[in-house]
Amino acid sequence: MGMRIDGSEGFLAGATAATEYTGPVAVTSLWFAGQAIRLVRPAEPDRLLDDPEVVAWNRRDEYMPYWAYLWPAACLLAETVARATWPEPGPSAALEIGCGLGLAGLVGVARGLRVVFSDYDPAPLDFVTRSAAENGFDAARFATRLLDWRTLPDERFPIILGSDVLYEARLVPLVANLLERMLAPGGLGLIASPFRASAHEFPAAVESRGLTCRAEPATAQSEDGAPIQGMIYRVTRAGAGFDSHVRQKNQRV
Questions:
Q1: If one looks up domain 24-248 in CATH, what number appears?
Q2: Domain regions of the chain by residue span
Q3: Binning pLDDT at 50, 70 and 90, where does residue 50 land?
Q4: I need a labelling partner for 89 at 20 to 30 A (CA). Which of 18, 63, 200, 250 fits?
């Protein structure tokens, strides 16, 4: 299995609670720009919503286990990652925030990135590990971490990925602050959103922190072939030009 990293400052050594899914599991094959990914996920994610422990956690911390669903923005980000030309030689470290099922990060591993999958709840990280094994990924190419956006570590990454992490307006300053603190000089953040109104203030929030943000239209297909549309917020920090090496193979999605 991939490395589980706990105990670092800001990366919680143990969540105050954790969801537990005990229902049937599905393994789905998905394709992004010709890249096949096998995704392990709950077959009946709604089971979690009625769990008394989940209800209690929500009352304490407004938390819901949305990680168990495959959201459209995850496909948008996965397509973007699959189409990007990542720099050579050698692997680049990427952090996926609020990773949930980790679809975009799994595509990143398949494309040669070394990915740290992070989430507030340990349950999705177990599914990510199962998906990595299902795809035959080298355990040295990924790690999982618990991460609370309110308590950030003193660590930076050249690539930060996030899909549908702006689904409520209260999350916008948290994600913007995370990018300010954790995006390396010359780094690239790719944040996918399916045209949520809550994300409209994100570019201004990022730019007020000294970063640049460009909103680009994105398209992808759902697992049943339906078209998905949304935005990719491309966040960059001045410095050694990592972002200049990350180009799209065809038109930007």
A1: 3.40.50.150
A2: 24-248
A3: confident
A4: 250
